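Page 37, top half.
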Amino acid sequence: MKITVGGLTYSWVDSWAQVPVTESSRLGWAHHGVVVAHNGEVITFHPGDPTVLGFNAGGALVRSWDAPVVEAHGMALATDGSTEFLWIADPGAKRDPAIGYQYQPGPRAGQVIKFHLSGKVAMKLARPALPVYGSGTYSPTSVTVFPQRHGGAGDVWVADGYGESYVHRYSGSGDYLGSINGEEGRAGRFNCPHAVFADTRKTDPELYIADRTNRRVQVFDTDGRFKRSFGADFLTSPSAFAVSGDYLFIAELRGRLAVLDREDRLVGYLGADPVIADVERGSPTDPPAWPNRQGPDGGLVRPGGLKPGKFNSPHGVAADGHGNLFVVEWLIGGRYTKLVKS
């Protein structure tokens, strides 16, 4: 099956990643990211277990290791010298099938960790000592690094999307440098800054923030100064970013990828399912129990009838050096799709 938008055409490869079939892979509620290493390896996470998974271009599992995280909700790759590292933003909570897919009670142990690709921990970032965290929750959802080779300073930015809706800045050595919450700019306060992304397509790199509940993207410079906001008229649920060539791909949780040009203009949507994408969550026409469905006993189960060519709930997106896209979705059992560029 082929899907198109603008002048772009992709072949849809369903169930691309060969995730080992176990009870936890069938029942775990996937809620993770995806990245592509310099060697083409696609790195993502297990639906139920705290395990990092690496796949080759054909979808065969070539690497796996257990990580001291609850969920690899946000993932990023960055190179220090000649060594590539994996960053994981862990919100510290995951829906548990053993308790009806509720979150475990108690405080969230959110964290951001830098790993060697072997799985060895290289660094942990300290939670900022801000007054808001005296009684508030720290639950980071995304991390990105501004590479020096593209004009950045190696700074690390962390989105506390499920906590207090702040975005924090660290030096490459892990020192806390400051925070923003959207009040610095004309667009206003963040509401679930779900993803941060270092965009290096232009001469001056920029920080893109998926201000998800506000249904928009806010853009800042590498020092955290507001530049612009866009998308309120064509985005519903921006959740993750990837770049391929001049195009920006935004994973929208509401059933599609939004494709933008170099000037942040909408080119169109890929894999849009109108049953999901064109309604408000919680409206009378919203699919019951989305992104899953209700089973005969009233409990949540994986949705049946997932359609090739139509997304259900894209949560993460990445692009390789050939322009192919990899999309991971938020639902029981996960869904790993490859879009092969024609």
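Page 37, bottom half:
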Amino acid sequence: MNEIDPVNLTAELIKCPSVTPKEAGAITLIEDLLNKNGFICSRISRGGVENLFARWGSGRAERSFGYNGHTDVVPVGNAESWSVDPFGAEVKDGYLFGRGATDMKSSVAAFVASAIDFVSKNPPNGSIVITITGDEEGEAKNGTAAILDWMQKNNEKISHCLVGEPTCPDYLGEMVKIGRRGSITARFCVKGLQGHTAYPQLAINPLNALVQLMHSISEESLDIGSEHFDASTLVITSIDTGNSATNVIPEMAKAVINIRFNDNHTSESIKKWLERTSKDFAEKTGTEITVDTHTSGESFLTPPGQLSDIICNSIQQELGVKPSLSTTGGTSDARFIKNICPVVEFGLVGKTMHAIDERVEISQIRNLKKVYTRILENYFAEI
């Protein structure tokens, strides 16, 4: 059997314009390839999103190594700003260009290629599971979450999992993610009393209260970090009144913040702090303040141990690089998978993800497949 070329497979995936939540043939391409090579595939559709669960081996195997990735991509932005067709998979100067090249069709291709080649040459004593979603870049309500719901209903399990998100800042093998900070967005609405700017004593300006509130919470030191996490951060992303008049004190003012929090907090503890602080400022300023929160994910950590050791050792063996263990960055679908098994993340250099002229070094794709293959070899030899 000829080995599967992950570069060609990446190019075929890029040619599928799978902007969230469109499948655009990307998952079908992977499904057909896995079906032809001994994987049992199940299509999971929910809320207009297509997802894939594929297993080689028995679902009752004691050891099952899982891989999670996504084929959906963010919009291209202004296509005229690209130097190439965003979905043309053009090769220039040793790079493969296209939306999703870095985030994360190369990783999907590399793992699918390594898994197929691995089971054909060295059938493991255990099983390999591949889960691919079409809803990672969107709301993520009908993607990996839907796959996990389906797994529970069908008594499917994974022992350990690798998420193929781009994790390396500058060079391949530099960083492995063993956790992520949580993310909570809070929307504030301050209601005052509308009036004339010439008679401010007759009004209650919600902007004054909102500015004071935003200043207070943004100056708060949430923490100084923890053993595996950097300090939590709070960013004001919007302040708005919708007031087009210069001589009117508005009745309403709104603001939005985003907090990335470490394991010193939970979303509930942060929510209570924001509500308590808002109540205090409402009483001080004579306004009404409401705060609505949405949590994208809690902070989580897979403690350094057997799984991270296998992945780091595999990287060293193939690339000669000793990776660092990190929890930096935004959220990923690992926040769902951590509920069913230990999970870590490792993938490409992420410098051009979501950017104009997104691209990946072709040599990186081939090297990533080598690392993923070595991970499978070491996993089934050691666990």
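Margin note: The radius of gyration is 24 Å.
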